[in-house]
Amino acid sequence: MPQRIVAGNWKMNGSRAQLAAFLAALRQGWAEPRRCDVLLFPPALLVPEAIEPASALGIGVGMQTVHPEASGAFTGELAAEMAVDVGASWTLVGHSERRELCGESDEDVAARTVAALRAGLRPMLCVGETLEQRRAGNAETVVREQLEAVLAVVGDELAAGAVAYEPVWAIGTGETASPETAEAMHVAIRDILKARGPRLGMVPILYGGSVKPENAAALFAKEDIDGALVGGASLDAAAFLAIIAAMETHGNP
Ligand code: PGA
Prior knowledge:
By secondary structure, this protein is of the alpha/beta class. Helices cover about 45% and strands about 15% of the residues. It has 11 helices and 8 strands. The chain has one domain: Aldolase class I (TIM Barrel). 2-phosphoglycolic acid (PGA) binds next to strand 8. 2-phosphoglycolic acid binds next to strand 8.
């Protein structure tokens, strides 16, 4: 079975105080042994100080993005190597907000995935269609193209990472894909990966888009939903803990 993962993406939210309070609340509600992996993607400035308290709970810490180059004249950017240097273990690549707001193309996403792997960061590749693309009947084609653009460059090295299916229309909107809609896309993604060999067939496929404690169990009960990439609800420790518990109770063993 693929690894089970619940990941929190804080986006551009949070402060040092909020991070400390959040991790303290997680510690209080923590149940051992955990039967799924937990990851946190705070804003880059909070990554270094998240490492120690998060590792104490076995939580991995990741970047929300990294630059393709290892160093150089790229004012304001952060390299995957720098993230590894401070203790990060994962990075998101291709989040729809970066594709949309920062103009990241499939080629950029592939280059950032290469950079992550080069540095030893595990990439979580985000893919997903917009509402217009879904209405036009192109959801699967769009996701296939996003996935294949990266697979064409990194091949089965993506087995070190994960894929997050995040339909753009469900992100931050309160509108979740139904478990059936999400599962259908997860199956399609699994088939694309499996066709490239058994290692890729085992890549965890997470769902993202308005995941909350109320809808997590029904999503996790689906066979090909191996976890969740949680935005808004991951800012609330109680909600995040409830989503982790839902994975442990309802996810595949
Ligand atoms: P959301 O965000 O849970 O707030 O919809 C998910 C994401 O963008 O990763």
